[in-house]
Amino acid sequence: MLTRARVLPRNGLKQLSFVGNTNNGTHRSLIIPTPTIKKTKRNRQRIRNVKIEDFDLDAIRNMEDPKELEYKLKQLREYTRRLYEDLKTSKKDVKEEFDYNSQVDVSKDAADIFHRLSQGSDATQINAHPGSEEDLSSLIRRTTLLEANQLLPPSISERIEDQDLIIRSLHNKSSQQWNPIIERLYQSGLIFEGISQKDMDMKFLRQIKGLTLENIERLDEMLLSNYQQDISKLSMTSYACLFENLGNLKPVSIQRPSTDPVISKFKALLKRIDESNLTREKPLKLNHHILNSCLNYTKKLKSINEINYFLTKFQNDYGIYPNKVNYTSIIQFYTQMNIPKKAWEIFATMKFLSKEHSPDIITYNKMLEVCLLEKDYSRALDLFHELTQAKITPTVTTLTKLIQIMAVCSGNSMTSDGKSESLRLLGWKYVPRIIESKRGEYMSKIFEVLGAMLSLAAYDGDVTLARALYFKYTTKKHQELRLKGGEGMSIQTLWKWALDPSILNHLLVVYSKFDAVKLPLLFNNTDGVKLRRNILNSVDYNGRSTDEINIPLLPVITLTTPEQVLAESKAIWSFCLEYGGTTNGLNDNIIREELITNGEWERLCKGPDSKELKSTLFSLISHWKTNLINTNVLNQKCLISYLTVPLRLGNKDEFLARFKLFTFQQKEFDDAISAVIDNQDNLITDDPIPDSSETNVVTSRKPADVDKHLDFLCSLRYKILATDPMYELEMKLATKLQDLELGIQVWKDRGIYRRTTHFNTLNKDERVRNDTEFAKLMIDFYVSQKMYIDAIGIIMASKRHIDWNYHMIKQLHQGLLQIEDKTNIKKLLEIVNKGSRIKLLEEEIDELTI
């Protein structure tokens, strides 16, 4: 085919003439327009001639201009693209060389190997690779050295002189252990002499995480020694490493923040930077990352004064004002301090400062935590609508927080505005959105999602669904921890982390709300029915799919009687306390036999002095609690939920049995200690008998019941001191069952507790609050017994200490109206109205003062 082309001067088009091989000699022509040349936009041009020297990480981290950062990002992408192309080319060359070498005849090597094998034990050792002079041990050593040099700069790994330690500590990128590395470097004495600053900054200091305070001090000392204590030579990367590791530490105590060693170290480093900048040609510039490290630790210390100190210093001395990340840290601090008003003020400031300070999804998630703290579902929904309008994509954490808020707010009619079921139904509607999200994000937050769903089921009283969710959560958590921890994690540690106390608390709450007749809320929604069915079908209580995890749930989908609920809740509680049933921490007989075998029991029965007895007992109890009892689960909140199950189901015997087994009173402890101490000898010498020829008669006296008291003292390993919440539960039970005898006994026990040191060490406001709550319960108890005069007597005796209002005495007032006791009604209303008038007068005085 012949082709002719010419440019038409009239319209600038090219005409292509095609001469075919046809017999009639016809010509075919095609007009193609010339492509118009457009100016390429600057941001679409490929950046060329990028070198590694263009990337100064210190300079990049200090950049504030978004355009410069964007340009550096484009340079990095171009550099990465070129590296990838070079890598592909090199791989292609290597493959071609390998293909060429693989064509060599291998028959000679095979014959040589056969000859060596036929020589027997006297033959020379066969190398790992034919033609290689290395044996297997040399190959392993060389490979280990290469891997160690990849994890650390060669000059540093040579100083450590332990490649196994380097690989063992740093091989797992997700959980590197830098403390052994710093300790070994510190012990070597060579420190960092002869190591280039580039290797120090890029391959060493930027990687260090998770150091203890002691090793941070050692690293700081080594860095200073490397420059002969010249503080003007330390790089910004060195300081960034120190600050970041300090910010990740946890406070040992929050009692005296001003003397905290980490805070002191922060201030010392800032002072050193200030002093070094006086002699530097190019002063160090601090950044928001340094400020955030200070805030991260200070918020864990819960010190407002220290937070204000760092914010003020960075603003006044360095001209660094909080950015988005810093403001988010401050919001988290105020949330932890239970000061939601300040958190809302910071959030409002972020929205009106500038676009760079606008809240992102992380900030919105923190504000949802504030809504959860305040139990304010309407504000949470407003936040969700606000971030949607701002085109911010909600994460799985966002939706999980919303579900938790809807569940908690539906707990009572006050926080739910009488719309409890509507809030729970709204919470369930967020679950499909979570499931439809990116699978990687969903699976990474699977435990948060299961926990939020369990809270919804708990507040709804759906025992069947809650059991299934608890089973899924615990088995999956156990399997994941076992895979991560491997053989290095003990059984107790494994179960300690797998058995989440908050998840157990939700399960106990739903047990207490058991109602065999009530239909679950999800039955009102088609999607909800499908979701519930899928969850129930995914669990196997018979243990066929989880042989190594035997959670003591009855092998039925649905519990039908209160007796089943009580039995299962009791089994689950014991299972969690004994680290998944792997210890016998609740078995007193085994503990006693162990003490008898070791001779401890006999020594305790002989009645040592008070100090020695208490020291020995507390040491034993501490040892048992650590090794036999899961103290994460044995807390007041979970125990109250455990006692609430028989309380709401109206089973007095089971409640009292649980109360007696897992709580103790201060008086019981004092009596047991005194009884053991007083029993010093089983034989005593009585006074001489009159008219007897013998001066001294040795008689035996029946020893005190020391065994019983020692059994009680040993059982303290799984007991909690009975405090106001426990006595309140007892009084509620007496009121519900109208048990006068139980109510009087609780009144006496609580009166004894009120005189103990534990109660009197509480602050005044807390003591008044506890007295007020118990007095209100006593009023309700006496009203249930129609003992109105006794109820009025409590109010009259406590009117100076308790601010009585009508809500607290409503039932008493209604009872007096029924019997038409006008005299006592008048007294009652005078007390209530007097309190209201005094409160109103105090408010007016405050307004005048302002």
Automatic annotation (TrEMBL):
Regulates mitochondrial small subunit maturation by controlling 15S rRNA 5'-end processing. Localizes to the 5' precursor of the 15S rRNA in a position that is subsequently occupied by mS47 in the mature yeast mtSSU. Uses structure and sequence-specific RNA recognition, binding to a single-stranded region of the precursor and specifically recognizing bases -6 to -1. The exchange of Ccm1 for mS47 is coupled to the irreversible removal of precursor rRNA that is accompanied by conformational changes of the mitoribosomal proteins uS5m and mS26. GO terms for cellular component: mitochondrion. The keyword Cell wall biogenesis/degradation does not apply. It is found in: Mitochondrion. It comes from the Eukaryota. GO terms for biological process: mitochondrial RNA processing; mRNA processing; positive regulation of rRNA processing; RNA splicing; rRNA metabolic process. Belongs to the CCM1 family. InterPro entries: PPR_rpt, TPR-like_helical_dom_sf. PPR repeats lie at residues 360-394. Keywords: mRNA processing, mRNA splicing, Repeat. The keyword DNA-binding does not apply. This is Mitochondrial 15S rRNA processing factor CCM1. GO terms for molecular function: rRNA binding. Binds to mitochondrial small subunit 15S rRNA. It holds the Pfam family PPR_2. It comes from Naumovozyma dairenensis (strain ATCC 10597 / BCRC 20456 / CBS 421 / NBRC 0211 / NRRL Y-12639) (Saccharomyces dairenensis).
